Each structure stands twice: as structure tokens, then as C-alpha cells.
Structure prediction request, 259 residues.
Amino acid sequence: MKGWSAVNERADRSCPALLIDNVVKSYGRVRALDGVSFDVRPGEFIALLGPNGAGKSTLFQLLSGLFVPDSGRIEVMSHDMSLDPVPALAQLGIVFQQPTLDLELTVTANLMFHAGLHGLPPATAQKHIDDELARLGLKDRAADKASKLSGGNRRRVELVRALMHEPRVLLMDEPTVGLDPASRGDLLKLLLGMRAQRGIAVLWATHLCDEVPDADRVIVLHRGKVLADTTPAQLIASAGASTIEQAFLAMTGGNHERD
Ligand code: ADP
Prediction:
């Protein structure tokens, strides 16, 4: 396969909301991330597309400060994650792949608990919660236990929680896992709208090619390396394919196992 590393379109040169520069992370002999570099600019929706084992979760763990890279640099809104983690993390909102709501607490209690962790005054937090739940059509569910909500609505509550401290960068780690097709589509549409309305940068990790076409850019991660960083249309055109899935298979040879 020739020329994939050159698939790299850049139109806007504004200061990145998120910068990942030559990041390496190994687990013993496995190089989960092998010199990963890309950026996400304010207001961009980026799909990070990779099969299982590509390194997406490892990258999200580094971005959320759970681990540090072996080498390389991560910056959030120009704050270095290693040197200046507090302001860097303050600009990040994260929705993890695994559900994280306390199912025995009400929706409001889940959100108020998180607001407290961020030091938000209760009145400010309550107003934010009321506004966001209303915006997402969940106002009448505020007093329900989280266990009463559908999977799609739990994800929406997790999204409200991730946005509580008004971050500039939102990380979504395979957020549609376990959702039915309609809820998957709704969540994706919601996020695409949000980046347009709020100018928030979104990094959306997925292994599902059908979640990619509306992204501003797609970054293909395979065996810990970035194979492409381009627009969905350009990805398809460069492969002479007619769908993202065909282009992706052409790039990876359909072989996702690590040597
Ligand atoms: P993805 O999220 O794209 O499925 P991961 O980041 O989970 O990819 O995994 C990348 C590679 O790192 C895989 O080969 C996986 O087996 C390996 N890996 C991930 N976490 C660990 C760990 N804690 N210990 C050892 N190997 C790991």
C-alpha cells in the first residue's frame, strides 16, 4: 500500500484544542501506541477509527491522565498534560466506554456529585443540570434513578456530566457500544450538533465505519499507528473505494491481529 502516510489534509492552522505529538506507550512487548501524532482543532469533530486492539483505549487512558506516555507529548488547550495536568484536565470532558453512572442514585444526584468534584457551587450546578437536561429532552427524568433510564438516555446523562465544567475538548470512547442502532444514530447526531453550536472539539473513538462519514476528519489507527488523517470523502477517494468500510479494509488488509 503506498502513500497512506501522505494522506493528510490541513486547511485550518488555528491553535489545536488537543495536540498529540509522537506518543508511544507499550505494555511489555506490545507497542499499543507507536509514535501517534495528530491534533484536533476547536469546533472539530474527529472520528478516531480503529479495530479492536488498535490502541484507542490506551490513547484515551493517556488523554484522561490515568497513565503517562513512555515518550511524546500531549497538550490540551496548550497545557502540557505531563507538566501542567490540572489546567489540562480542566479543559477535558470524558465519556468512557464502560457505563459509569451510579444506578442507585437519581439522575440529579449523579450530576450533583460530579459537580461537587469540580468544585461548582450547588446553585450554579443545579442551573446547569436543569438547562442541559431540558436541552436533551430529559427534564422529566431528573428525579428518576439512573437504573430506570434506557441505555441511550444513560449515555446522555453521562454526556451532561462530562460537560458540567464546560470543557473545550470532549473525549468519547466508543460511546455507542451496547446501544441499539436508533440510539447510536441519535447520540452521534447530538454530538455533531453540539460541536457546531458550542464550538467544542470532539474526539469520537469508534470501530464502526458507519459512524465516520459526517466527521470533519477521520484518523485511522491501526496496530498503534496513524495510517490516515484526512476527510472521510478524501479517505474514500484515495482508496478508489465507494465507502469508508471499503477504504478501511483496503488500508488494513482486513488483518487486525498484531504480530
Ligand atoms: P482498542 O481500544 O483500540 O481496542 P487497546 O488500547 O485496548 O485498543 O489495546 C491496544 C493493544 O494493547 C492491544 O494489543 C491490547 O491487547 C494491548 N493492551 C491494552 N491494555 C493492556 C494491558 N493493560 N496490558 C497488556 N496489554 C494491553
